[in-house]
Amino acid sequence: MSDSPPDGNFQHSAENEKLDLSTKLAFGAGDLGTAITAMIGISYLSPFLTDVAGLNPQLAGQTQLVGKVWDAVNDPMVGVLSDRTQSSQGRRYPWMIWGAIPFGVFFFLQWIVPHFSNNENVNQWGLFWYYTAISILFNAFYTVVNLPYTALTAELTQDYDERTSLNSFRFAFSIGGSILALIIGLFISLVVPNNRSLQFLLIGAICAIISVLPIYWCVWGTKKRAQAVANLHPETEQTVSIPLWQQLKIAFSNRPFLFVVGIYLCSWLAVQLTAGIIPYFVISWMRLPQWHISSVLLAVQGTAMSMLFVWSAISKRVGKQAVYYMGMTLWIIAQAGLFFVKPDQVVLMYCLAVLAGFGVSTAYLIPWSMLPDVIELDELKTGQRREGIFYSFMVFLQKICLGLAVNLVLQRLGAAGYVKPTPEIPVPTQPDSVLEVIRVSIGPLPAAALICGLVLAYFYPITREMHAEILLKLQERRERRGIGNRGDGVSGV
């Protein structure tokens, strides 16, 4: 006898808009592998390229920029194609099934150091083109598995609070994956302390293997629920017939969507700028052993994970915006404090890392909980479900801006005279100009982005009551004439 619940149970669950624990766990697992690779990439790729592969900071910044720009460009492509996919597996699952293994393979290839020539200039450009090509391929398959996965959120439930709960599981796995990645990095740095090239190779191989399997767990554990919702709400599987440029026009005329994009962009600009500069901050400014890099990042991510379900519970009482205000305020204090930390204030550095974790957890939770509400508003106006286009263009803008930001920081490090480590001098003393770039990049720049996010959250228009109004009008439309193409307005949006 099968252990799976009968289809009637899935239908009943879909009608109640509540998800069982096994479905939530499986959905959350879908973000585990991409979180592991993202954390390893943002935390270690820049120092790997500059300090191990030997690329100068300017070329290291450019190769990451090219990868991020391509990553951003392929997001709307995959989003539109997944919206239009017709398969017995649904719209999203074929992409995840076939993209998982190449995703792992190209992640691993990022951590190999090829040697093209004894000539320094030739070798620099050979390394640049190798890492650029691998970055393009890895980011392409990252999008192939991750973007259809994120679009599942709105296809598993339409309940306002249940979506916040669903995202809590997603980001518990996401932060858990980040923590696991950092633990692996910390363990390897302690076991292989004097060979950084071997350290990164082992990290790449181990993380590539453990990043692929959870994607298949997600597919296996959520597919029946998605099919039950699709049967109950056929609009969730309706292919999109609006031309691409008209879709863009509609998406960017959706005022709440622009606010969500801005909030997400500001939050994640702060996250990734900080994570990317921490290796340089710990080694060059604080003058600490390498294992402290993973420890500091663990302090941030561990706190973020422990607070995730706390913030979710508070959100049910006071709303998403209020939770965002609370988290961002604490986070701004932490980022500003890091600018003033002195090299001998190690305990204070860790305390500020923990404080930052309170805010990072809201950056995971709140913007992604807002986006499905925006999708319902779009359905009300257009009569079509277009999760892929909204998710893809949200991430599209974020990746373009973050690619530019990381490139700018590395360009400034190079222009300021960054001194690369050598076997003879593994931790060189950096000039004051480089140290100033590091401190500004970990303090004022992220804090300014977070303040902008607070302002945007204040003006975000979709409240719990307004979302209930949107769902009521959608339900009335379906009951009256099925799935229509004419939208009704919602006051105040």
Automatic annotation (TrEMBL):
<feature type="transmembrane region" description="Helical">
    <location>
        <begin position="291"/>
        <end position="311"/>
    </location>
</feature>
<keyword id="KW-0812">Transmembrane</keyword>
<feature type="transmembrane region" description="Helical">
    <location>
        <begin position="257"/>
        <end position="285"/>
    </location>
</feature>
<dbReference type="InterPro" id="IPR036259">
    <property type="entry name" value="MFS_trans_sf"/>
</dbReference>
<keyword id="KW-1133">Transmembrane helix</keyword>
<keyword id="KW-0813">Transport</keyword>
<dbReference type="GO" id="GO:0015293">
    <property type="term" value="F:symporter activity"/>
</dbReference>
<feature type="transmembrane region" description="Helical">
    <location>
        <begin position="93"/>
        <end position="113"/>
    </location>
</feature>
<feature type="transmembrane region" description="Helical">
    <location>
        <begin position="171"/>
        <end position="192"/>
    </location>
</feature>
<keyword id="KW-0472">Membrane</keyword>
<dbReference type="GO" id="GO:0006814">
    <property type="term" value="P:sodium ion transport"/>
</dbReference>
<feature type="transmembrane region" description="Helical">
    <location>
        <begin position="388"/>
        <end position="410"/>
    </location>
</feature>
<feature type="transmembrane region" description="Helical">
    <location>
        <begin position="347"/>
        <end position="367"/>
    </location>
</feature>
<feature type="transmembrane region" description="Helical">
    <location>
        <begin position="128"/>
        <end position="150"/>
    </location>
</feature>
<dbReference type="GO" id="GO:0008643">
    <property type="term" value="P:carbohydrate transport"/>
</dbReference>
<dbReference type="InterPro" id="IPR001927">
    <property type="entry name" value="Na/Gal_symport"/>
</dbReference>
<dbReference type="InterPro" id="IPR039672">
    <property type="entry name" value="MFS_2"/>
</dbReference>
<feature type="transmembrane region" description="Helical">
    <location>
        <begin position="323"/>
        <end position="341"/>
    </location>
</feature>
<dbReference type="GO" id="GO:0005886">
    <property type="term" value="C:plasma membrane"/>
</dbReference>
<feature type="transmembrane region" description="Helical">
    <location>
        <begin position="198"/>
        <end position="219"/>
    </location>
</feature>
<keyword id="KW-1003">Cell membrane</keyword>
<dbReference type="Pfam" id="PF13347">
    <property type="entry name" value="MFS_2"/>
</dbReference>
<protein>
    <submittedName>
        <fullName>MFS transporter</fullName>
    </submittedName>
</protein>
<feature type="transmembrane region" description="Helical">
    <location>
        <begin position="437"/>
        <end position="460"/>
    </location>
</feature>
